[in-house]
Design brief:
heterodimer; A: about 140 residues; alpha/beta; eight-stranded mixed sheet; about 15% helix; B: about 425 residues; Aconitase, domain 3; 3 domains; five-stranded parallel sheet; four-stranded parallel sheet
Chain lengths: ~140, ~425
């Protein structure tokens, strides 16, 4: 099966991009460069990769309470992920999307999906619909 | 669970008290829905981490609230900004970012927040009562507020903190509820030698290990025979909240909700017990450093969280009037700077080569010389965690005593960890 349905955590635009599965929890503040979307945490296994335009799969989030600010900035400057897929909801991170919507800056959709589903999307071109369907593009 | 808003809350969200108050209430309500909270509860204070510039979006957001005539309805202190408004240190933030950062700080002032500009508000006179509900941001302040003061807050992200402060409300969820404050994991340090537990680096190192092991659960530390003091607890919490998503810890016999381990666990058997070994502590210590073997260091940074006056006493004692070859950046709040200035202590430290940094710190804004690949020495578990990604420096982690000796000689001086 190359399609799975996730629970919509924060409504937003569907999108498509290469699937980037982060293999360790990340702190968006101090872990993602807000100007470019690059993973800047040198201790993180995906250090150097960019989340901009990707469908990102997050096993967990840690650290700073400024994650929301980094994600809002990425939405505003056009370097947000195409969609966010989280193993568990993170209120701090997703707040960035809630605020983006309030500001009139359309956010990407965020879904909850068990991390056991993540690997099949790694490195593939993935599309995500606004109602939560995640699919490998043919 | 569906969120039930009161008539008053619904009317505010619809604009009865202006566009700013409406936006704030909608953000609080949307977050409550995301969290599955059934209602909003009143809060007594807030600590706002949202005034740090990460890009123009945050400034535009804060100015939108100001333009909508919003003001805070509870006491709200401010965390660090991106500029040193006291003029103690030189921030290399260039225009236009510099102007946007200043506009952002100004917007939060207009919203009615106190100009505290510190990540240690709990040492700057903002100490909520035990059991009171508050909405605090800044991960180290959250963990201190919950764990050491026994007040109740979740880890409020940027924007939700100011939204709660304006609304005077927060989602009834998580650590606001007593049943969620119970420890489920025991973190037993009784096997560690007293020489390590009494050492200056024990608490930041253990905090870093604790955060990585515990993640977002609530744990209770056992095997601690004496209260290590407020600055040690501050360092432990800050490190734990950097390596994990820790919002609350207990230390049996030390912190207010843990008279003993049984109380902290709520009389229920723990889900797991982590027996901390010397090897684990030693491994956690070495993981704080990212620099390889080096003969020189380029800078020293201390004060994450912001230094207390007592920590400045220690710094002065270690320096003992000697000139530094490598600058020590000592980050603190204006509440401490005013005390230092009263006795001419800041000037004396600066003459020896200390750079006092006020209102901000070296990992949130460019203050350190632009030196990618440079080596930064620190005694802070939180600086050790964030400096490589945020400054480009690699980190050498050590005690304050070793940091000072290294700054005096210009060469790394590392005392072997007592085993």
């Amino acid at each position: 099966m190359n399609t799975v349905g996730g629970e919509v955590l924060v409504a937003g635009l569907g999108g498509a991009g290469v699937g980037l599965v982060l293999t360790a929890p990340i702190s968006f503040w101090g872990g993602i460069d807000p100007a470019s979307g690059r993973v800047s945490d040198v201790r993180h296994p995906e250090h150097g990769a960019s989340i901009a335009g990707k469908v990102i799969f997050l096993p967990g989030t840690i650290g700073s309470s400024s994650a929301s600010a980094v994600l809002l900035e990425l939405v505003h400057n056009g370097h947000a992920p195409a969609a966010l897929i989280l193993h568990e909801p993170d209120a701090i991170l997703l707040l960035g999307l809630i605020v983006a919507r309030e500001m009139g800056w359309p956010p990407p959709v965020a879904l909850r999906l068990d991390r056991g589903n993540f690997d099949r999307f790694s490195g593939r071109r993935v599309s995500v619909t606004s109602d939560g369907m995640v699919q490998v593009e043919a | 669970m569906t969120l039930e808003l009161s008539d008053d809350e619904r009317s505010i969200a619809a604009g009865s008290r202006g566009a700013g108050a409406a936006m704030a209430l909608r953000i609080v309500a949307d977050s409550a829905r995301l969290l599955g909270a059934p209602r909003l509860i009143p809060i007594e204070s807030a600590h706002i981490d949202g005034a740090l510039y990460h890009g123009d979006s945050g400034t535009i957001f804060a100015e939108r609230l100001v333009d909508g005539d919003a003001t805070v309805s509870v006491r709200a202190t401010l965390n660090v900004g991106a500029l040193d408004l006291m003029g103690c240190s030189r921030v290399r933030l260039e225009e236009p970012a510099r102007g946007m950062a200043r506009r952002m700080m100004e917007a939060y002032r207009k919203l009615g927040c106190e100009q505290s500009w510190t990540c240690a508000p709990y040492q700057a006179g903002h100490r909520p009562e035990r059991g009171s509900d508050v909405a605090w941001g800044e991960s180290n302040a959250v963990v201190f507020c919950n764990s050491v003061l026994g007040a109740r807050t979740n880890r409020y992200g940027d924007f939700l903190d100011i939204a709660c402060a304006i609304a005077g409300k927060a989602p009834d969820y998580g650590l606001h509820r007593p049943e969620n404050r119970r420890a489920t994991i025991v973190f037993d340090v009784s096997a560690l030698p007293a020489s390590f537990l009494g050492s200056e680096i024990a608490w930041p190192v253990l905090g870093s290990l604790y955060g990585r092991e515990i993640g977002n659960a609530v744990g209770v530390v056992t095997g601690v025979s004496a209260d290590p003091g407020e600055d040690a607890l501050k360092a432990f919490g800050a490190a734990a909240a950097s390596s994990g998503a820790v919002g609350l810890f207990h230390i049996a016999g030390v912190t207010p909700e843990a008279q003993d381990v049984g109380t902290a666990l709520g009389g229920v058997a723990p889900e797991a017990t982590i027996h901390v070994t010397r090897e684990m502590a030693s491994d956690a210590q070495s993981r704080l450093s990212t620099a390889g073997k080096t003969e020189t260091i380029d800078a020293v940074a201390i004060g994450s969280p912001h230094l207390s006056l007592a920590e400045f006493d220690m710094l002065e004692n270690f320096i003992a009037g000697r000139r530094l070859r490598v600058p020590i950046h000592a980050c603190t709040g204006r509440h401490v700077v005013s005390e230092l200035d009263r006795a001419g202590r800041r000037k004396a430290l600066e003459e020896l080569g200390v750079v006092v940094v006020a209102d901000t710190c070296v990992v949130v804004t460019p203050i350190l010389s632009d030196n990618p690949g440079g080596v930064l020495m620190t005694n802070s578990g939180k600086f050790a965690h964030y400096a490589p990604g945020n400054t480009g420096y690699s980190v050498l982690y050590a005690s304050l005593a070793d940091c000072v000796e290294s700054a005096v000689s210009g060469k790394p001086f590392l005392t072997e960890l007592a085993r």
